Amino acid sequence: MATAQLYCVCRQPYDVSRFMIECDICKDWFHGSCVEVEEHHAVDIDVYHCPNCDAHHGPSLMKKRRNWHRHDYTEPDDGSKPVQAGTSVFVRELQARTFPSGDEILQQMHGSQVTQRYLERHGFRYPIAVHKMEELGLRLPPPDFSVKDVERYVGGDKVIDVIDVARQADSKMKLSAFVKYYYSPQRPKVLNVISLEFSDTKMSELVVVPDIAQKMSWVENYWPDDSYFPKPFVQKYCLMGVKDSYTDFHIDFGGTSVWYHVLWGEKVFYLIKPTPANLALYEEWSSSPNQSEVFFGEKVDKCYKCVVRQGTTLLIPTGWIHAVLTSQDCMAFGGNFLHNLNIGMQLRCYEMERRLKTPDLFKFPYFEAICWYVAKNLLETLKESRDDNCLPPVYLIKGVKALITALRNWLTPAVKEVVTEPSSEVPDHIRPSHLIKMLTKEIQYLENGNCGSKLMKSQGISACPSTRSAHERRSHARRTARRLRDQDHHHSHSPKAPSNLDIFEQHTQEVLKRLEMGPNEEDASLNLKFNKVSTASAAVAERSLDNDLRLVLCNGRIIRVVCVCVCLKCTGLKLNHICSESATSPSTEEDAIQGMLSMAGLLYSHPSEDPSSSQESWWSRTNRPSPDYSKREHHAKLKHRIQEHKNFMDSQGSGSNSSSEAWSSHTHSPAHGESPTLGYQYCETSLSPPLHPSKRPASNPPPISNQATKGKRPKKGMATAKQRLGKILKLSRHKPFFV
């Protein structure tokens, strides 16, 4: 292999990262650091002589200044060319201009008021000025912190970007060289340092960014620790500028919001609202060849002047177009952050940078990658909001829509004017097309469910106060679980009386438990359970004596369902009284009682019916006209039937070996004093609930194999019966059967 060509006095190969200058005599190339020529000085050299040629041909020849208003000061000053931004003439004219006061748009606030909750409610659309940094959670070095202190903490060998203000050109130099320039009695140029990011230095320990910038930052909340891409560090900048330093109008990279704090000195901001018209003018101005000759503040309707003095912190929202003048030597600290409040504007600024072909050096690091990370997290946020019946904030919905559009464009560039390749910043563990599809579904769900505010209110959907980071979501989940647990505890101790259906459900659960018990278990517990009310239902009834629905169990089976008011004793149910007035018609009461008795396996024989038809299903008789009993006669007969069965239960209390067969013979025998036309007939309770006539099988159904019925759980069938009972009582749910 051919050896690389060597250059300079150090005889090293070419290094693209190091500044080099060519000797006009020997045509050899030299590193600026090796021949003590700074990059910003090289433009002032007309003819360069290297150290070897300097001995024979004399020193290098410098350019002669011919004007003070052009970037190229060698141009003849014939007055035909306009003033360019950053020159000494431009700065004098700028200081003489008049502008609307920044107080018209500046929000003066206490640091304690600048919270995420406040900005989410009121928006972050105008600059905010805070005069006490402690209330912001901001911590900085003391006001006597000097440029030399910066060199001590950061290191003099660190290469930094420096702006030559008069030429508005960027160059690189060591921090030690800038410190030497700063303290020199005569400064040949105006140099400005605005991009010294020190997160990876010892000085980072001296600075704590404002709480609002930390809590809202995309990088802090969404950037994963295991990302393939290096984490962007844009939150801690040190700005060191000398008097008359000027930065022309710009929008911070990626549309980031900015916080500035002047440690000492003074800065003047020229602020322009990011309206659609102003943004269009800004893009046109930025792409024009004579950009430096046009003061952009004159192209818009209003440009506000805001003076930021020592100890003041300024927060600038997304997209604001601004220029900065350093009116006296100044040191300031600042940082940039992306957030959820203005996603659409951030994306618009980034797309503008792409159209303007902004170099990567001046763009937000891995902007597209962090947008994919944010999209993944916002998808989870939208899902959580849907699960909680919580409507996300409007700004978040709009932001996600803008994000979906941008992600699609990055995957499949469709703009013919801008020929780009598919994005290479898609994280490996993210499926971009699937992510876009899921986000689109969530937005469609919100749009379909948000047809009107009345609909959202009727569904009990409320607005979510904010989006949350992963840590905040976990805390929110824990708080929600605790709240639900507390509510359950409160309700379990609440004296509120349960409804009739709640009591019936308690009895049903007890019966289901007994049905699932084996024969041995049932015999063993027979003595304890015979002729007694279930413990759960008894406890409920004791707390609520005004409930109308009561059930009587015998041998683990429901034998009576009555609508009475009772008091409980440990040996069984004792009738207290029956109210005389009915809230519903006799037929409605009778039908309801018959329905409940059918669920329990007891069929009620109507006086007008033939006893042979006593097994007829209740549903087949619901539409038959009921006899025209008077209310008093109806209640008297019902009381008579209940009293007879109560007497029978009392007579069975002394015999623990009574069976359901004895009960069946008793209820079918007229010898016990029961009228043959007013009786209950006991039927063996089926594990399958009675069917509606439309769903009833044929009169001679085919035999069912054991395999088809094997493993059937009685509980499922009984639950269905309970649900049907609820439907039967739906019309009279809010009315007691007896008043």
Tally the helices: 25
Determine the strand fraction and express it as a percent band.
Answer: 15-25%
Distance between the termini: 108 Å
Give the overall shape, derived from the CA principal axes: elongated
Indicate the topology:
Blueprint lengths: L5 E2 L4 E2 L6 E3 L6 E3 H4 L3 H4 L2 E3 L3 H7 L3 E2 L25 H9 L10 E2 L7 H7 L5 E3 L16 H8 L4 E6 L4 E6 H8 L8 E7 L13 H6 L1 H5 L14 E5 L3 E6 L6 E16 L3 H12 L16 E6 L3 E4 L4 E17 L5 H13 L11 H21 L2 E2 L2 H18 L20 H18 L3 H6 L3 E2 L6 H23 L7 H16 L3 H6 L1 H4 L5 H9 L5 E6 L2 E7 L1 E5 L2 E6 L8 H14 L2 E3 L26 H22 L7 H9 L11 E3 L23 H4 L4 H15 L11
Helix pairs in contact: 12-13, 12-14, 13-14, 17-20, 17-25, 21-25
Q: How does this structure look, described?
A:
It is a single chain. This protein is of the alpha+beta class and 739 residues long. The protein is 36% helix and 17% strand. It has 25 helices and 25 strands. The strands form eight sheets. Strands 7, 8, 9, 10, 11, 12, 13, 14, 15, 16 and 17 form an eleven-stranded mixed beta sheet that branches. The protein has a two-stranded antiparallel sheet with strand order 1-2. Strands 3-4 form a two-stranded antiparallel sheet. Helix 12 crosses helix 13, helix 13 (394-411) packs antiparallel against helix 14 and helix 17 packs antiparallel against helix 20 (535-543).
